[in-house]
Amino acid sequence: MRIAAQLESLVRPHSHLRAMAHHISCAADCPSANLANHAWKDSADGRRRNESFPELYHRALDLWQRLAKALTTDDRQTFIALSGHLNYNGVPEG
User: What letter would DSSP give residue 32?
Assistant: First the structure.
């Protein structure tokens, strides 16, 4: 991997391979990770939430797999339901 990333850096300023291979990890001393599940305000809708960054990240990965399957199989109803009936800007559809 390291060799491939070095070769890639010959043709572009930053290695895409190195960036994609980055493993997400959160330490207890990282307040932004919210590992203690403190309440926070969601800037999208103003709701009070308490999920940690790892919880949200893993939920997003799971959701993405289901959304991608619905999108690639042209299953519009499932796609809309999984997206919470919100468009790209977070505004309700319809």
Answer: G
